[in-house]
# Entry
Amino acid sequence: MSRDSGDIGTSSAGRRPDLDRRRGKELVIGRLVAHGRAHYQFRSEEDPSYYLKILTSSGPRTLWGKDLDRALRDAETQPKAGDLIGARRRAREAVTVTSRHRDDKGHVVSTSERITHRSLWVVEKVTYFAERARLARQVREDQVDAKATVKRHPELLSSFLSVRAAEEFAKNRIPSVEDRQRFLELIRGVLSASIHEGTPLPNVRLKDRGAPVKLMPLSKRRDDPTR
Amino acid sequence: MSDFEELPSVETVIEDPASSYWLKASVQTAIQRDPVEALNDALLLAALLDQRLRDAMQLGLLS
# Structure
């Protein structure tokens, strides 16, 4: 039986897959040694996948994932062999995997389907992640000069608009100062994390303001006692 | 296929005009040392530099 997903986890000598899974969205930094299409784990009976060989500070490491091919092609910085790169799983999407069951001669005798998850990657030169980290800090920090920053980085406009929209929302609809601050910190945190991880920035449209809607304060949950 | 297949040889690195002077000097010094001690130190150095890079990224010191 072969595995079609072929893009789960990383591998290198002595590495424990359970530890890799626990690491989740870690940024793997290293020198890109090689990349290309190959059968998963270089085993001919496995399904086609894509690999990156990276020389990290803790030794060579091979990342597997069908999406790595797309991530490299779509990369803003177009990394190539020899570059210092960063690779990070940015999301997982559900996919239907077809498992092929083979007989002794390798002929497919039956197939079965199951739902699994495929990792979506961002692979860029390491300077890209440094820049994203810097931008994430700018959005997170309160005292940022939004106008000047957006002029330098127009791609951050939607993030600042999101923050502005959240501020407006909080001002009009969240009476508690404490809840308001908590809400805005949450929004800034989400946007900052999104920029930091290299995920696409959200598109924000300013809608016309309707009549304020009375919302239940964040400090009072539905099940809270009334007195 | 081995993870090391695409690694260049010591000679290639030393003769490669694209290699930095620091790397060439480090390789030339390292190959005169005990291999175990040299690798042990190099792994620590790599880990330190990895952390230094991550710290610099977090502090916004790179662009």
About this structure: The first helix of chain A runs from residue 17 to 23. Chain A has two domains: 10-125, 141-197. Residues 1-17 of chain A have pLDDT under 50 and may be disordered.
